[in-house]
Amino acid sequence: MNLIILGLPGAGKGTESDFIVKKYGLIHLSTGDIFRSNIKNGNALGIKAKEYMDAGQYVPDEITNKLVAARLQQLDIKTTDFILDGYPRTIDQAFYLDKTLLTINKPILVLYLAINEQTVVDRLSSRRVCLQCGRVYNLKFSPPKINNKCDIDNQTLIQRSDDKAATIKTRLQVYKKETLPLVTYYQNQGLLKTIDANLENDKVRATIEQYLLENDNG
Ligand code: ADP
Predict the structure, then answer these.
(1) Is the pTM of this model over 0.85?
(2) What was the pLDDT predicted at 149?
(3) Quick one: what percent of the chain has pLDDT higher than 70?
(4) C-alpha to C-alpha distance for 175 and 195, rounded to whole angstroms
(5) What is the residue with the minimal CA distance to atom 3 of ligand 1?
(6) For 18, 19, 31, 190, which has the most beta carbons within 10 A of its beta carbon?
(7) With 90 as the cut, is the pLDDT of residue 13 above it?
(8) DSSP state of 164
(9) Residue 160 in contact with ligand 1 by CB distance below 6 A
C-alpha cells in the first residue's frame, strides 16, 4: 500500500499522515518537512527553498522532483511502502512521479482531503509548531496544556512563516491553479478516494481506515 495524500494547505495532510504512518508502518515522505529540515541546516537547498516558501510559492519542480526521486530510489523504499505528503503538487510533478514509480514498480492510491477554504484559513492562522519535536498544535482546536509551550518538551511554540495571513492567501491561490487539477488527474485514473476533511478528526480517521481496509491487498 503506497499512498499520496492530497488537499489544501491546512486540510490535515501532515496530521493524518502521522496517524497512517504509526498505524500501518509506512515511510512518511513530506516535501514540506524535507524543505524545512534543509532550511534548519542552512544549506543551499534550504536557502533556495525558503525564498519560495516564505512567499507562498512552490519550490521549482526540477528541485522538488529530483529530491523526491532520490528518496524513492533509496534501497529501503524499494522494500517498504510509503506515503507522499505534499507531493505531487503540480501536473508536471505528477507526470514525473508516474515515471519514477514505474522504475521501482510501485502502484499508488490517492487520499484526497476535501475541505472548505474558510476552514483552512481559520486552521492555518491559529496553527503553531514546536521546532524541537515537530508537534503541531492549533490554538483554537487543539491548544497546548500550557500557553504557547509544547506539551512534550516545553519549548516555545512558533508560527510557521508561511502561516502568516498574507502568505496564506497566496498559498491558496497557488494551490487552486497548480494542485487542484491533480484531483481530476487521479480521479480519471480511478485512483482517488475523497474524504470529507471538514469533519472531526476521529471521523476523518475512521473514513481513512475503512478505505485502506478495503484496498489493502496484503
Ligand atoms: P502545506 O500543505 O500546509 O502548504 P507543506 O509543509 O506541505 O504545507 O509545504 C510548505 C511549503 O513547502 C509549500 O507552500 C511550498 O512552498 C513548499 N513545497 C512543499 N511541497 C512542495 C512541492 N511538492 N512542490 C513545490 N513546493 C513544495
Answers:
(1) yes
(2) 97
(3) 98
(4) 18
(5) 9
(6) 31
(7) yes
(8) S
(9) no
Strands 136-138 and 127-129: antiparallel
Under the banding of pLDDT at 50, 70 and 90, the label for residue 101 is confident
Place of cell 514498480: 105
Q: 153-209, pLDDT tens digit by residue? A: 999 999 998 999 889 999 999 999 999 999 999 999 999 999 999 998 899 999 999
Contact of 94 with 125, CB cutoff 8 Å = no
- Amino acid symbol at 1: M
Is residue 161 within 8 Å of residue 167, measured between CB atoms?
Answer: yes
Cα–Cα distance, 194 to 6 (Å, whole number): 9
- Top mutation candidate among 59, 93, 119, 161 for ligand 1, by most atoms within 8 Å of CB: 59
User: Cα angle vertex 7, ends 40, 106, to 5°?
Assistant: 85
Going along the chain from its start, the domains and CATH numbers come out as: 2-115+166-217 (3.40.50.300)
Q: Can 135 be counted among the known catalytic residues?
A: no
Catalytic one of 106, 149, 160, 164: 160
Output the nine-digit C-alpha cell for 77: 523504499
Query: Bridge partners of 28?
Result: 83
**Cβ-based burial of 118 (10 A; exposed 0-12, middle 13-18, buried ≥19):** exposed
Phi-psi region of 212 (alpha: psi -120 to 50; beta: other; left: phi over 0): alpha
